[in-house]
Write the structure tokens for this entry.
Amino acid sequence: MAIVFNRRSENAGTQWYDAAPVELIPPSLSVSAPVSYFTPAQAVEVEYEIKKSRFIARVAEACSREEAMDLLEQARIDYPDARHHCWAYLVGPPLSPSTVASSDDGEPSGTAGKPILNVLEHKGVGNVMLVVIRYFGGIKLGAGGLVRAYSQAAQMAMEALPKTLFEPRITCRVAIDFALEQSLRHWLSGHKGDVTEHEYHEQVILTLALPHAQLPELQAFLAGKKARFLNEDN
């Protein structure tokens, strides 16, 4: 049974088991179940001005460092004459990200990238990149003023950000009697699941994709019926 973490299919390994009739979920699956979390639904850009300095904050989804750096490069293309393009990203679940990073991009150390990252770490949003572009207005803000300004710009962007709930999905293959196929397909349609492949032999073999949280309900639905989960070699 493969746990598929997002639409870019980061595979967390394969764990198969047989059940005929379907048995309880193995502890290894239930204990390590990934959690749902929010991700950006679309890119957002806001602007904050203080003492003639403009802070343009742009936030968008980034599922890897490469995607985050692509967004940074686009910000530099869109605002080539800005003095600073400071940024931070958080990839993965917000409470246990796979990677985080930030940059002051020429501002005094700790006054830009770290405050932006601090905002990201307290918003409960994963797979997110936030760039704050600064146009200097001629009046120095001081270290404390820069921290507050970058934090405020990041905060405004995150408050304006539309979010979508990301639900980790699993894929599995089941063999069922022909008489069960339509009822299983109907069950899947009501539980955010899909049939991604099908084969017809002595039994119907279906490849299913559904939210990980629905696995216990799938087990309960199939319990007592002529159904079994298939391993990779079946």
